[in-house]
Design brief:
about 600 residues, alpha+beta, six-stranded antiparallel sheet, five-stranded antiparallel sheet, 15 helices, 21 strands
Length: about 600
């Protein structure tokens, strides 16, 4: 990335290189031992500098200040007594820098200041401060025409310092007497500025030092360009991530005040979701796709879409993760096979925690991949961490996922943590103590608890988080009755349903609901052999009707002809209800419907 200088930068360096070649022709040593020794020392110094810079380039991360500091240390060791590095504010924000000379719309910020050992100096600008680049100074001129500047004698050629009191004071205090200013340019974009000073008894800079500084600046710009690309890719990934995450979590009767969080400095692969399920239940999910960048954000969106598709089929959490694991394993095999996706989408290594909460029973069923964690904060202040079955990340190995069931008291707060590496994982005991303190002081505020956990984890290591306070449906809003496997159950079910709707003051739904119940119970008698159970749930603005039997066969909507005597039951149910579906249980299946009401 940015391995060569731009034509404009090359043109700017020609005068300095021509002067160096002229000096070499005039002063080229004879084949003497002393001359050869000096040449060897220069070559060794240049080789060592290149090695240091290449090491910095290979280790360049997304921290501009860390990379700039390493570059400044290399320059102090080989070229100067004092080195400052300024970088574009736009680069720090991950924004595009307009090509061409420096402009005021792209200000510079001090990213590094280094001095030779033993020198205690106070810079004009501290690291992190915005740097003022005044006009009519070598700094502004160098940024404008993209040419390096060599000032051998600051006392003689530094009249411009008289107009810059803070800078003049810093130069004077440091006893700096010689200066080289070079813009940091990569692929036609000004990334920043490097200033090199000689001070005290050091010899002034000469044309050879300028050439070495130019080489250094060129390689330093390459290092910073690597960092810039990574920052921009991460910024694009975060924008895509936020566009793909839910803007508002759906309001559900099972949960209060659900709050989600993904780290601002994350990889772009973290996500959270709340998914409405049948029977007034809700699925809560957090996860983190492996990798970083736009490809990771796209992989995250696909994982999230697959989880939603699987969850609405009423699969158990362990079944959902088993299906995801199968996809991740298959995708990993494709990745190592014929070719690579242009965005390098990867599912293997991803972490995920899926929790299904049932407000009727007050029970959570959970399954996790990759060390994710569920924390439960009871209203009495007790903090518990259920021991979920330990499974490796998705696609790591062929294994069987397991679910863990735990009863949750009404009004408890569920905290889902996507987890991370061992270094980034929050300490369980420290988190529990902090959460206990929050609960005892401010109650079960889901948003405040979320902020508390982020404070415990610390910046740079935050996982995806999701908090929600649970609710339990009142017994008076849930009614159920078992019937024997007998044709008389149909009439009994209709009568019982009418009475229950009257008790709930939902008489306007009596006709349609009794018809739906009649069709569902009839099908259960026809296609199963065991007892039948009917359950009605008055869930806020929705009436839920469920009929359970011992058959595992899923009813399917059929297209009937005018002369067909049967097969219209599910069609009638579809017309009379807003949603309907089937979920399988350990002993058979449950066919459910939902109808809106005004209560």
């Amino acid at each position: 990335m940015g391995g060569t200088s731009t034509p404009r930068a090359q043109a700017a360096l020609r005068p300095a290189r021509a002067a160096l070649q002229h000096r070499d022709r005039l002063t080229r040593p004879t084949a003497s031992t002393s001359g050869q020794t000096c040449q060897d020392q220069d070559d060794h110094r240049g080789y060592r500098t290149r090695q240091e810079l290449e090491s910095t380039a290979l280790g360049a991360n997304q921290d501009v200040f860390h990379t700039a500091d390493k570059l400044a240390r290399v320059a102090v060791a080989e070229l100067a007594d004092v080195v400052t590095v300024e970088v574009s504010e736009l680069m720090l924000r991950g924004e595009a820098i307009p090509p061409g000379p420096f402009c005021k719309s792209a200000p510079l910020r001090r990213a590094a200041f280094q001095s030779a050992p033993g020198a205690t100096l106070r810079p004009a600008y501290a690291v992190g401060e915005m740097a003022r680049i005044p006009a009519a100074t070598p700094y502004r001129k160098s940024l404008t025409d993209l040419r390096p500047r060599l000032i051998r004698d600051l006392q003689r050629d530094g009249r411009w310092l008289a107009r810059e009191s803070a800078l003049a004071r810093a130069v004077r205090t440091a006893q700096a007497h010689s200066l080289i200013v070079i813009p940091l340019v990569a692929r036609g974009v000004v990334l920043g500025l490097v200033d090199l000073y000689r001070r005290a008894d050091s010899a002034p800079f000469d044309i050879g030092d300028l050439e070495a500084a130019i080489t250094f600046a060129d390689r330093a710009a390459q290092c910073l360009d690597i960092v810039r690309n990574r920052i921009q890719e991460r910024a694009h990934a975060r924008l895509l991530q936020r566009a793909l995450l839910p803007e508002v979590l759906p309001p559900l009767s099972a949960l209060d005040a659900a709050e989600g969080h993904v780290p601002a400095d994350g990889s772009g692969g973290e996500w959270f979701d709340v998914i409405p399920l049948s029977g007034a239940r809700a699925a809560l999910v957090v996860g983190a796709a492996e990798g970083q960048g736009v490809g990771t954000a796209l992989g995250m969106s696909q994982l999230r879409a697959m989880i939603v598709a699987l969850a609405v089929q009423d699969l158990e959490p362990d079944e959902i993760l088993a299906r995801l694991d199968e996809v991740a394993t298959r995708r990993a095999r494709e990745h190592t096979g014929a070719g690579r996706h242009p965005f390098d989408l990867k599912y293997g290594g991803s972490r995920c925690l899926c929790v299904v909460y049932d407000p009727v029973t007050g029970r959570c069923t959970s399954s996790a991949a990759g060390g994710s964690r569920l924390v439960i904060l009871s209203p009495d202040g007790i903090v518990s961490v259920p021991g979920l079955a330990c499974h490796p990340p998705l696609g790591a190995d062929d294994h069987r996922f397991e679910s863990t069931e735990v009863d949750v008291p009404p009004g408890a707060v569920l905290l889902l943590d996507s987890g991370g590496t061992d270094e980034s994982r929050p300490d369980t005991h420290a988190t529990a103590e902090r959460l206990h303190e929050v609960v005892s002081r401010s109650g079960l505020d889901a948003r405040w608890i979320l902020e508390c956990v982020r404070g415990v984890v610390g910046p740079g290591h935050e996982p995806a988080l999701l908090t929600a306070r649970t609710r339990v449906l009142d017994d008076k809003n849930v009614a159920q009755l078992a019937f024997p496997h007998d044709a008389s159950a149909v009439a009994a079910a209709r009568t019982w349903t009418s009475r229950q709707l009257a008790a709930w003051k939902l008489d306007e739904l009596a006709f349609t609901t009794t018809l739906v119940v009649s069709e569902l119970v009839t099908n259960a008698i026809r296609y199963s052999t065991g007892p039948i159970e009917l359950r009605l749930i008055n869930d806020d603005h929705t009436l839920i009707c469920e009929v359970s039997d011992t058959s595992s066969a899923t009813p399917h909507l059929r297209k009937t002809g005018p002369s067909d005597e049967g097969g219209r039951g599910l069609s009638i149910v579809t017309e009379l209800t807003r949603h309907h579906g089937t979920r399988h249980t350990a002993h058979g299946k449950t066919v459910w419907t939902e109808q809106p009401h005004s209560e």
